[in-house]
């Protein structure tokens, strides 16, 4: 088995362990799916029949195993309300991916630009200002950034809508409604990734071949782009891949603030319903996206390292 196969197996096993923990955690919450989804006026016998229909009379690990065995065929199971999980996430999950993808693109662009700008003037006021601001920004929770953006750009300036309205197809009705949610996700991640870019560039700048290029009298921009940045890219790519998980996690909070039609509302309803298959289904999809991004980062890192050798 090659390195790629070993990485896939390792991360698949980690994802399975995570999904088992999700199932068990939902099962440990007070109440269960039968009582949480019961209608007003239903008798105890009706709730008990629903409990048996949902299989809640069986051990949680047995229910989890039955659900896991359907994953290879793409079966995410059935929710506590009798709707296939795949139908419930078919619209919201692509919306969340779009939100996270745009935030990741902006994060990569600004983190590279600011990190390289600071690296051109190491130790200067500009370098210290960018690094200090990045440290402060990365400490801000997404919901704080989201509320501040709403207050500033929507309620005060009136430039952008404070909430997202879904169109007929379930996606945001206009691109303008994406601006604030994307910014709320992007700003903390820019801070995190600027620090990674700046540190990676500083480490690479100490390499002998870089010092030789400086002694040869090459211009700083040329030294940065031709000698420093290529060697720093593996660490930068890994940092961006790691941001995928933080973006998807932060999206749940941001979607709630802006009423964005993503998996955040689905996950909140699933938790209220004690709906383990739905919570695990959303987790499985997010975990698959994160696994793919980390695998891509590993392949890019290996390719860049091989090119340097």
UniProtKB/TrEMBL annotation:
Superkingdom of origin organism: Bacteria
GO CC field: plasma membrane
Locations listed in the record: Cell membrane
Membrane topology: Multi-pass membrane protein
InterPro entries (UniProt xref): BPD_transp_1_N (IPR045621), MetI-like (IPR000515), MetI-like_sf (IPR035906)
SUPFAM superfamilies from the UniProt entry: MetI-like
Keywords annotated in UniProt: Cell membrane, Membrane, Transmembrane, Transmembrane helix, Transport
GO biological process: transmembrane transport
Positions of the ABC transmembrane type-1 domain: 93-301
Listed transmembrane segments: 97-120, 132-153, 173-192, 232-258, 278-300
Family named by the database record: Belongs to the binding-protein-dependent transport system permease family.
Name this protein carries in UniProt: ABC transporter permease
């Amino acid at each position: 088995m090659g390195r790629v196969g070993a990485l896939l197996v390792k991360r698949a096993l980690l994802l399975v362990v995570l999904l088992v923990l999700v199932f068990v955690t939902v099962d440990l919450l007070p109440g269960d799916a039968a009582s949480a989804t019961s209608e007003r006026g239903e008798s105890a016998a009706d709730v008990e029949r629903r409990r048996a229909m949902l299989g809640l009379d069986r051990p949680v690990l047995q229910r989890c195993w039955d659900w896991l065995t359907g994953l290879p065929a793409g079966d995410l199971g059935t929710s506590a309300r009798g709707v296939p999980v795949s139908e419930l996430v078919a619209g919201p999950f692509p919306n969340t991916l779009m939100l996270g993808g745009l935030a990741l693109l902006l994060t990569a662009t600004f983190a590279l630009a600011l990190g390289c700008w600071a690296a051109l003037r190491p130790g200067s006021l500009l370098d210290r200002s960018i690094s200090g601001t990045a440290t402060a920004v990365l400490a801000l929770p997404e919901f704080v950034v989201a509320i501040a953006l709403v207050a500033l750009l929507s309620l005060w300036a009136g430039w952008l809508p404070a909430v997202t309205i879904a169109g007929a197809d379930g996606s945001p009705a206009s691109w303008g409604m994406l601006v604030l949610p994307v910014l709320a996700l992007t700003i903390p991640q820019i801070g995190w990734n600027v620090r990674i870019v700046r540190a990676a560039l500083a480490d690479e700048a100490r390499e002998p071949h870089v010092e030789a290029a400086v002694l040869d009298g090459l211009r700083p921009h040329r030294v940065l782009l031709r000698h420093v940045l290529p060697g720093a890219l593996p660490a930068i790519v890994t940092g961006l891949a790691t941001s995928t998980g933080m973006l998807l996690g932060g999206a749940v909070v941001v979607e709630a603030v802006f009423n964005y039609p993503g998996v955040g509302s689905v996950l909140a309803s699933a938790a209220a319903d004690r709906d383990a298959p739905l919570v695990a289904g959303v987790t499985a999809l997010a975990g698959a996206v994160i696994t793919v991004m980390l695998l891509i980062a590993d392949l890019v890192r290996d390719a860049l390292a091989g090119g340097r050798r």
